[in-house]
Amino acid sequence: MAEKMAMAKAINESLRRALDTDPKVLIMGEDVGKLGGVFRVTDGLQKDFGESRVIDTPLAESGIVGTAIGLALRGYRPVVEIQFDGFVFPAYDQIVTQLAKMHARSLGKVKLPVVVRIPYGGGIGAVEHHSESPEALFAHVAGLKVVSPSNASDAYWMMQQAIQSDDPVIYFEPKRRYWDKAEVDFEAIPAPLHKARVVREGTDLTLAAYGPMVKLCQEAADAAAEEGKSLEVLDLRSVSPLDFDSVQASVEKTRRLVVVHEAPVFFGSGAEIAARITERCFYHLEAPVLRVGGYHAPYPPARLEEEYLPDLDRVLDAVDRSLAY
């Protein structure tokens, strides 16, 4: 039951399966219905399941998430789409003060099984507010799960797990990887949603990444291998909660760690990983934990984004600096 498909298609198939198996699953968002989403991730779903299950909403992100909260209180499992990463901020208040807090506020009596889908990151030549990486803002908020797949198989299964979760999940989709293809086994037993995975074994240094940067780290490991360096690549998959045990196990083996993400390095998720692994692995590390990411500046115009985004040279430079200690 395996099929090779693009990540966008895998998410579409996962949403289709959820709609088909659970009548309480709803999809909401701007242009998700008749248009099928700007990236066609929800293409065909409204035609097959109707306008009461796949709902085109007004351009009002706060209203989209607020409505999803109300529906979840009535027993539904809404999956809402924020059309682009930079559009999420009108809904930020609803997400962090209502969606994230209701379970604790009700002493565990109320659950809000809402999935917030956010296409994020750069690499597609988009205009302002269409290429940001705000995952650390949500990971900082207790009560939210924050995940990001790096390939079609994970995209399919992590969406299934996110929809089935009784806690709200912020599901970041790396838009530059929407068209990357991989095998998806529809009968597989998926790994736990928040479990990291070693995608390449190595002995000299660990590269840890998630979402769009996992592929770049694999390319860096290939390039380093030509120079006789053995790099382990760890796909974190989840930003909150984060599988520190797997990171620790890898670092205890390789004794070096470079964390790579598109988001700015300053106060990014890599900072928490660096601090925690330094605490856990102090006597194993042979070099400080290094971070590679975006700059502490607004995301630039499209013609400059390749200067802003981490690339192969910047990752390999961090590898060389770490190995030089």
TrEMBL record:
Keywords: Oxidoreductase, Thiamine pyrophosphate. Coiled coil: none annotated. SUPFAM superfamilies: Thiamin diphosphate-binding fold (THDP-binding), TK C-terminal domain-like. Pfam families: Transket_pyr (PF02779), Transketolase_C (PF02780). It comes from the Bacteria. Its EC number is 1.2.4.-. Residues 5-180 form the Transketolase-like pyrimidine-binding domain. CDD domains: TPP_PYR_E1-PDHc-beta_like. Its cofactor is thiamine diphosphate. InterPro entries: THDP-binding (IPR029061), Transketo_C/PFOR_II (IPR009014), Transketolase-like_Pyr-bd (IPR005475), Transketolase_C (IPR033248). One of its GO terms (molecular function) is oxidoreductase activity. This is Alpha-ketoacid dehydrogenase subunit beta.
